[in-house]
Amino acid sequence: MAKLFSDREIRAIAVFLPLAGLLIIALMLVRPAADPEAARRAEAEMEEALPADSVVMSHFDPNTASLDDLRRLGLTKHEAVSLLKYRAAGKVFRIPEDLTLCYGISDSLYRRLEPWVRIGRKYAIAPEKYRTGRILPEPLAPGPFRIDTVSARYLRAIGALSKRQAEAFIRWRDLSGIYDMEDLRECYVVSDSVAAALKPYVIFPERKARPIEQPVELNTADSATLRSVVGIGPRTVVAIMHYRERLGGFVRAEQLAEVPGVRERNYEKILKQIYCDSCKIRKIDINFASPKVLGKHPYIAPQALRKLLKARQLKGGWSTAGELVEQNILTREEAARLAPYLQFGSDSGPADE
């Protein structure tokens, strides 16, 4: 039977095995024994917070605060080191809320620190990104400026907007006008953080309110006319026209409160500048209108629509809104709201889709 190993290989193995055993024993002797107590002490030291009477709350910039500054604010060593590591990775705190992005800062700690955060001017408004591969100059320190005359170049220079954003902002402003902070935030290229950073420097033009003796008729007004009403911004104009189309027109000016985007603080101001001509509304023949037309109306809920279509298929139609209540298709409140938009004449033919 042939040998598995030659004599030479057997001699080599006989020499190697004792040497390997000696090496393993030496490594075990040199390696220090694990000390669980020392590990617990190190962990406790990292989590140790300063005594309450040693904490001094003061304004600080998370972009420049040192380890000692953070410790004096009551952060543990672990929390302070986490913030410094986050910053060392190239992250910049532009607004106080950016602190929540740091994995070592809990929500409760952020709520305690937030009143004391003061972002330096160098960091408060972000400069343009490094898109071209070259380092861009630091942003110009912003000063008071008129929003109706400011140039795209200036908005870029202070680092508020990129080139494309600044150009889009100027087009938006010239088309819609900007008269207050609400209008400024309406612009889709202006984030909340940028709007907040610009707020101390923006000077808005005056806008004279439309005389009350010349109110706007809500059902026939075009977008430009609606935009002239003080309190109605560009987005609100779109929302009003979309809701007016679904509704078929406004019976009462108070229905404007149903439009998404009409805020309570502007509602009373808007009411003084508008009125409604209820003769301008578009009615639905409930006996002939298609399910698509009925389903678009905001006052007809899906459940009521299903009941209505099923009953119409069996009954054939109605002559009054009261019949819809009697048959439990609509509640009295729903019928009262919907009644101005209904007609029951069979001679009108099917409603257009």
UniProtKB/TrEMBL annotation:
The chain crosses the membrane at residues 12-30. InterPro entries: Endo/Exo/Phosphatase_dom_1 (IPR051675), RuvA_2-like (IPR010994). The keyword Metal-binding does not apply. One of its GO terms (molecular function) is DNA binding. One of its GO terms (cellular component) is type II protein secretion system complex. The keyword Nucleotide-binding does not apply. Pfam families: HHH_3. GO terms for biological process: protein secretion by the type II secretion system. Keywords: DNA-binding, Membrane, Transmembrane, Transmembrane helix. This is DNA uptake protein and related DNA-binding proteins.
